[in-house]
Amino acid sequence: MTVPVQSLLFADAREAADLAAFLGRLLHYDRAAAVRLQAGGGALAVFGRPPSFEVLAIRAVRLADTHDFDVTVSAGELLESLDVEGPDAGAGALPQPVTGPPWTGVLPPRGGWRECRPALPGPVALGAALSAAVTEFRGRDEALPEDRRTRAERELIGRDIWSRTVGGTELPLRAVHAAQALGFLRSAPDFPVALLAAGAWLRLRTPFGAIALRRAGAGLGPLGVSVGGQELRS
C-alpha cells in the first residue's frame, strides 16, 4: 500500500547524524539494505541486518515530534532524505514502504530480558579478542597453499574463528565484531556493555546500539529498545 511521505524531525541534528552514520555502515555491507522502522511517542527504533555478520543491529534515536508507525523502507532512500549539516539539519523524510526481506518480520522478544551469567568481559578484553581474531585470520589466510586460496576456504576460516564464544558466555565473537564494525563498541575501560538473554535470543547492549541474535542452533524473529526511558516494541 502506498502511503504519503511523512517528514521526520529529530530531537537535534546530532540524532540525525548518528542515524546517518549507522545507515551508511549498513549500506557498506549491503547496498540494497532495507531497515524496519518502529516509532512510538518521541522515539524511533531502526532495525537492520548486515549480511556479513548474520545478526540484527538496532539503533534508537530521539524524535522532536510524536509519531506512531511501523514500516520497512530502503536504507539508502532514508539516508538520502536526512539533512545533517544544511539549513534543515535534523530533518528527514519517511520513504515509501518496500517489501522487506524475511528477517523484517522476525524480531526479538518484547520483554523478559535478563543479564547473562557469567557476565560479558569488559570492552578492553572484547577489543583484544577482536584484534587476536583478525590476526589469526590473516595468518591462516596467508598460510593457505595457492591452490586453496579461494573465497570458500576463507569463509571456512572466518566461520571457525567468528563462531567462537566470548568469555564463557554463549555470545559468538561475530556479534562483537558486528558491534565494532557498526560503531556500537568502544575499547575504553569504563564503556558500558552488557549481555542480555530472553528465550532463544541474546542481545549485546551498548549506549550506541544493540546487536541481537538467536542462540546457537535456534536459527533467525519482537525487541524492546529504550530511548529516554521509553521502550519501543514490535
What does this structure look like?
The chain is α+β, with helices and mostly antiparallel strands and 234 residues long. It contains 5 helices and 10 strands. The strands form 3 sheets. The protein has a 6-stranded antiparallel β-sheet. The protein has a two-stranded antiparallel ribbon with strand order 1-4. Strands 9-10 form a two-stranded antiparallel sheet. Helix 1 packs antiparallel against helix 2 and helix 3 packs antiparallel against helix 4.
The amount of helix comes to 25-40%
Report the mean per-residue pLDDT as an integer.
88
Number of helices: 5
Biggest sheet architecture: 6 strands, antiparallel
Secondary-structure-derived class: alpha+beta
Name the overall outline. Answer: globular
Number of strands: 10
Note poorly predicted spans.
219-234
Strand content: 25-35%
Question: Can I get a quick summary?
Answer:
By secondary structure, this protein is an alpha+beta fold. It is built from five helices and ten strands.
